[in-house]
Specification:
Elements (H helix, E strand, L loop, with lengths): L4 E4 L6 E2 L1 H14 L6 H4 L9 H5 L11 H15 L6 E2 L3 H10 L3 E5 L4 H11 L7 E3 L11 H11 L7 E5 L2 H9 L3 E5 L6 H6 L4 E3 L4 H6 L17
Parallel strand pairs: 1-4, 1-6, 4-5, 6-7, 7-8
Antiparallel strand pairs: 2-3
Helix pairs in contact: 1-4, 7-8
Length: 234
């Protein structure tokens, strides 16, 4: 196995959470007197937009004065009311985790998802035992951390060397955070991110389907030649 530890982003990388996120957004939109255009919700890359940007797409537009209420409704529904019926591992991910754990590989989750929502998903899905630790921006008392800071925290806490770790994420900010910590990075183009922006950050690898991750983990794909023209694809 190429690495001793795999650090995972959650949404759009480890798990397909899209439809459940849209469900919370639709709930909030309806209570604020608007709806999200069907074409907008069918494009998973729109999940990478901020809540503010998504609010701007509501029709009819409820007005700036309703935004705080919309944001709060989304938060309450997703953290406390959403049953996460549609949230599931991407194909091949569960097997990859099982196989690599048997080989001694350590697994961590580093995500921008709020801690409460992540814990609720773990509770409903039974996934928590498979990860040594998971961290969210609000996992830290008194302050919130960026993804760069959360990666650094895990590396320091578990005394892991950069060369032994890889981060898997689906957005340009994931790749940049890994680069800033000098660890290998795999861009999950099957997720919610924008391919052009992923390539711009020059990931070590780019995969189009989750199953491609195992080929990379086993060393069957070469990292040579990655750059602006396109990272090696698994």
């Amino acid at each position: 196995m190429r690495w001793k530890a795999i650090l995972w982003d959650f949404d759009g990388t480890l798990a397909d959470t899209g439809e459940d996120v849209w469900e919370s957004l639709r709930y909030a939109a309806e209570l604020c007197g608007g709806t999200l255009p069907e074409g907008f919700t069918k494009d998973s890359s729109n999940l990478g937009k901020s809540v503010k940007e998504i609010y701007g797409k509501l029709t009819p537009y409820p007005g700036e004065g309703q935004y705080a209420r919309f944001e709060e409704l989304v938060r309450i529904h997703y953290r406390c009311m959403n049953p996460y019926v549609h949230t599931c591992y991407y194909p091949g991910i569960e097997e990859l985790i099982a196989v690599t754990r048997k080989q001694g590989v350590r697994h961590f989750i580093i995500t921008m998802k709020p801690r409460e929502a992540l814990e609720n998903i773990f509770l409903k899905k039974g996934w928590k035992p498979f990860f040594e630790e998971s961290v969210s921006p609000d996992s830290f008392e008194g302050t919130e951390k960026s993804k760069k800071e959360m990666i650094a925290y895990i590396l320091e806490k578990y005394q892991m060397q950069e060369k032994d770790c890889v981060y898997v994420g689906d957005t340009w900010s994931d790749i940049r955070a890994a680069r800033e910590n000098r660890i290998s990075c795999i861009a999950a183009a099957y997720g919610d991110g924008d391919e052009a922006m992923l390539r711009r950050e020059q990931p070590d690898y780019l995969v189009w389907e989750p199953e491609g991750l195992m080929r990379i983990m086993e060393g069957h794909a070469s990292a040579e030649g990655s750059g602006n023209s396109g990272a090696p694809e698994g």
